[in-house]
Amino acid sequence: PDRITQAQPCPVIFNYKSRLTLLASASFCFTLMKTQGLLFAASVAVAVTSVFGEPWLWPIPQTVAWGSTVLKIEDHVSFNGFDTSLLQGARDRYENLIKSERWIPVQVSYNVSHLDPGGYLDAINLDVGSHDASLGLLVDESYSIDISASTKHALIKAKTPIGALRALETFSQLVFRGEDDHLEVQTVHIEDYPAYPHRGVLLDTSRNFYPVKHILRTIDALAYNKFNVFHWHITDSQSFPLGSKKLPELSLKGAYSKSMIYSPYDIKYIIHYAEQRGVRVIPEIDAPAHSASWGKAFPEITVCTDNFWDPGSWADRFSSEPTPGQLDPTNPKTFEIIQTLFKEVAETFIDEYQHVGGDEIAPNCWNSSSKIQEYAARHNVTLHDLLVSFEEKIIELVKGNNKKVIMWEDMVTSEMINIPKDVILQIWTSAIVSVVKLGYKVIASSSDFWYLDCGFGGWVGNDGRYVVQENPDPNNPNFNYGGEFCFLIVRQRNHDPRQDFNFHRKIQCSPVGNGGSWCAPYKTWQRVYSYDLTYNLTTADEKKQVLGGEVALWSEQADWTNLDSRLWPRAAAAAEVLWSGNFDADGVKRTLANAQPRMMDWRYRLVARGILADPIQPLWCAKNPKQCDAQLD
């Protein structure tokens, strides 16, 4: 598949001796995207006077001890110890990235330090304890980096090749373009490891299709941010793009078109591509709801697919959104199809886990089926009994394929089913503490913090609520109208903007309409960054039940054209929460004030790497630190 072209920043002058960087009308020129045979290019003109300190790192390592020396990097610096094909591939990628990126920080820093010239760094040595590159939930991703002025070497130590991959990403961020256009690196000692073992991004490729090259670019971005899971929500009611050798009709009839199918080759290529970057690919085959597309090939195994979805009360709905369709739990063929499909999925996807969905069971779908109602009456069972039986069979099938099960929380929190405790529950609506106290291990994906599709308004058509021209009651919530500025800051006069200052905050928020987005408002990067996964968990054992989390991009209003801007840089905020943790090594909570300049710089760096991340502020804010803050800390 076509690959995105590597960024090529334009030359810029950097004087490291004086610690002053003058980017005088410099242009960061980079090729952004190649699509449909056309080459799109863009450039960002940057004029910044920067007082530069230590390099910005994202996600921030657990411990960093900066030295006082700067080393230039030889053009032919040697890479030693990269002995396996995975490590050699990583070496080549990062060597090319470092040399082509030639990064100059965009964001201004007040952290000024004097660095002494120390000659040249002539070797990057890798010491890996094991060459076993197997990916899994408990793989060791820790590493250390020691860049020494005395040895003129960079020493990377890791227990596994996956830890080495994480170290190479950090090393790439340490390198900057220095005096005389040389690449330079500051002496430093870093000890780093992830706070959580499961750090992922969910992408829904059913509601809208994403060509393979855009998925590959997303996996690159995951690796840059030290994510280690690509949760592939590959099927849903709208389409079935999962290509199958054993059941080819599922995608041939269930996908939007033949060109919108992930072939078995595509899937294996994506898995291999991700594996080389230390990213696990976990497939989600959602059932029994969100399954209308199965019925295109096998109409006998689905019900209520011909009904209008009905946006009324939940009890009357046939689905959470268009289009209705749930699997028929009374038809033996349903489980024959599932068994065949799941066996192939288990053989194709190498990860130890499979996600089986299990969310948003619309009650009226099964209620409306005369066949299901007759079966229930004949066997003296309830619809809830049928759901319990369905889930038991699904879990048994997955475990029979030597896979472990992940499912959405709904079966426990909404349906009150006694799901086995070895099933991992993904949390999207409930408080984590309530599920942890039931004894489950969880993956956090709160829609209040980490749903990145929220806040873009409604997408269902012919919605008469939008035609209102005036807010009928400014004092009450309204669909189309919002409130006022939530707080007012009155500053003291003659304050120094670089210092703390007193302010008065007046809180006066009125209700804000959601505009048709059920999970509004939009989740800013600061909201994403503020998610505390262990909030209200009081014991160490309870906190260990939280395996990590995932940000989610559902694709009702997203496709390949806005993929990058919907995910990045907001997903990067979650990446730091998951890798670095909400608290530093001293137990101090990480702050937005500390993250802001690093996020600002990281966003520009992602764009330079070909990831079209949304701007988070005007460039003026980077040139004028803290002047765009709501409050000075």
Dominant shape: globular
Ends apart, CA distance between termini: 48 Å
Strand order of the largest sheet: 11-10-9-20-17-16-15-14
Strand tally is: 20
* CATH homology group of the largest domain: Glycosidases
Count up the helices: 18
Helix content class: 25-40%
| CATH class membership of the largest domain | Alpha Beta
Oligomer: single chain
**What's the main sheet like?**
8 strands, parallel
The CATH architecture of the largest domain comes to Alpha-Beta Barrel
Please, what is the average pLDDT? Answer: 87
What's the structural domain tally?
2
Q: Low-confidence runs (pLDDT<50, min 5 residues)?
A: 1-52, 484-510
Structural class given helices, strands, pairing? alpha/beta
CATH topology of the largest domain: TIM Barrel
Strand content: 15-25%
Using only CA atoms, what is the Rg?
A: 26 Å
Describe this structure in words.
By secondary structure, this protein is of the alpha/beta class. The protein folds into 2 domains: 20-194, Chitobiase/beta-hexosaminidase domain 2-like (Chitobiase, domain 2), CATH 3.30.379; 215-222 and 230-460 and 514-549, TIM Barrel. Helices cover 27% and strands 22% of the residues. The protein is built from 18 helices and 20 strands. The strands form 5 sheets. It has an 8-stranded parallel sheet with strand order 11-10-9-20-17-16-15-14. It is globular, with a radius of gyration of 26 Å.
